[in-house]
Design goal:
The chain contains 16 helices and no strands. The chain has helices at about 10-20, 30-35, 40-50, 55, 60-75, 85-100, 110-120, 130-145, 155-160, 165-180, 190-205, 215-230, 240-255, 265-285, 305-325, 330-375. The chain starts with 10 loop residues before the first helix and ends with a helix. The longest helix is centred in the C-terminal third of the chain and has 44 residues, at about 330-375. The chain is mainly alpha-helical. Bound molecules: the ligand CCc1cc(COc2cc(C(=O)Nc3c(Cl)cncc3Cl)ccc2OC)on1 and zinc ion (ZN) (2 copies). The site of one zinc ion has 3 residues, from loops.
């Protein structure tokens, strides 16, 4: 198969970008998408497998990797502004960087690293571009209006998974279904025990990307950081599966929530995309007469303000805990997050001031009109 598994006339540029950027926090994943002819996931996974020597370690033939991840890439909906293959490539490459932190250098086995990279690559496959809550609401919707044929197969998902981590269950099922293709049997050379272990680890990590698990995941991480402090700072002798899995789940969750912690141009590009996807959902909720989800209303959303609260309440607490766990390896990431937060805060304040000025001018005009009327 072609290098990085993608046919591109810009192979040399892609190769150079990976040489300098594959291990860097903040590589321009949108440039990777461009250079890889809109197959960023295949390119990134191939490059990481090569860098980590997985082809040899797990006896995987490059053509099998390309067959499988081409299928996975095609099952990411490129019409989604946010939850598309670029996001999958972004989360995969981000986790690849996090795994390189010196303080967790010898914590994970090769199989655990393979499982983490694989889990990121498939973690949002076949995402419909709407949230779990939307799927749950619309599932009930068709129960109350049976004559309305389901507009889309996606509302069947909540029925299928009984409202429990609906999307995350679907991503996992699709990914493992695609593995059954004979030409895509990525893990053929693993033995039965390894294959079973890998499947369990991938399911545990992907199901943990459900935002409804965020608070419990973060609580576990904080507990682990506390115990790490007590054990004199040496990280993790980590003998049991559940402690190791907590770290891996939080690592993938951090990567999933890494947009605000990337260099500002990348961060703002992701905000534009996630907005577009949320607003599209808001439009559909309005059309269905459903209550419009928070942050999904095109007319009323305050983008900067919600980014600031998203960072303050969700993203920063998580990255603060991760940074402590792998101290001092992630300091620069936390600093970038805090600088970006201040940027959105300034934007939000400027926007606020602007709207107040407009109101004042309106009042001024009104007052002048009344004054001139009274003359
Ligand atoms: C007004 C719209 C709005 C949306 C936000 C939150 O912003 C973001 C939210 C998310 C975000 O929620 N991602 C997500 C994750 Cl990590 C797991 N499951 C589902 C989802 Cl949707 C990922 C990236 C964001 O900004 C770049 O803040 N304001
Ligand atoms: Zn997801
Ligand atoms: Zn995701």
């Amino acid at each position: 198969p072609p290098k990085f598994g993608v046919e591109t006339p810009r192979l040399a540029e892609l190769s150079d970008l990976f040489d300098s950027g594959l291990d860097q926090w903040g590589v321009d994943i949108f440039l990777v998408d461009e250079l890889a002819c809109h197959k960023p996931l295949c390119a990134v996974v191939y490059a990481i497998f090569e860098k980590r020597d997985f082809f040899n370690k797990f006896h995987i033939h490059p053509s099998v990797l390309v067959n499988y991840f081409s299928q996975v890439e095609q099952h990411y909906k490129q019409e989604n502004p946010y939850h598309n293959a670029i996001h999958a490539a972004d989360v995969t490459q981000s986790t690849h960087v996090l795994l390189n932190a010196p303080s967790i250098a010898n914590v994970f086995t090769e199989l655990e690293i393979l499982a983490s990279i694989f889990a990121c690559a498939i973690h949002d496959v076949n995402h419909p571009g709407v949230t779990n809550q939307f799927l749950i609401n619309t599932a009930m919707y068709f129960v109350t209006y049976p004559n309305l044929i389901p507009m889309n197969v996606e509302s069947e998902l909540a029925i299928m998974y009984n409202d429990m981590s609906v999307l995350e269950n679907h991503h996992c099922a699709v990914a493992f279904k695609l593995l059954q293709e004979p030409s895509s049997n990525l893990f053929a050379s693993l033995d039965d025990i390894q294959r079973r272990q890998l499947r369990k680890m991938v399911i545990d990590m992907v199901l943990a990307t459900d935002m409804s698990k965020h608070m419990s995941l973060l609580a576990d991480l904080k507990t682990m950081v506390e115990t790490k402090k007590v054990s004199g700072g040496c990280l993790l002798k980590l003998d049991n599966y559940s402690e190791k899995m907590q770290i891996m789940q939080n690592m993938v969750h951090c990567a999933d929530l890494s947009n605000p912690a990337k260099p500002l141009p990348l961060s703002t590009h992701w905000v534009t995309r996630v907005m577009e996807e949320f607003f599209n959902q808001g439009d559909r909720e309005k059309a269905l007469g459903l209550p419009v989800s928070p942050m999904c209303c095109r007319e009323t959303a305050n983008v900067e303000k919600s980014q600031v609260s998203f960072i303050d309440f969700i993203v920063h607490p998580l990255w603060e805990a991760w940074t402590e766990l792998v101290h001092p390896d992630a300091e620069h990431i936390l600093n970038t997050l805090e600088q970006n937060r201040d940027h959105y805060c300034e934007l939000s304040a400027a926007k606020e001031a602007e709207s107040v000025k407009e109101v004042d001018e309106e009042h001024l005009d009104e007052a002048e009109r009344q004054q001139s009327d009274s003359k």
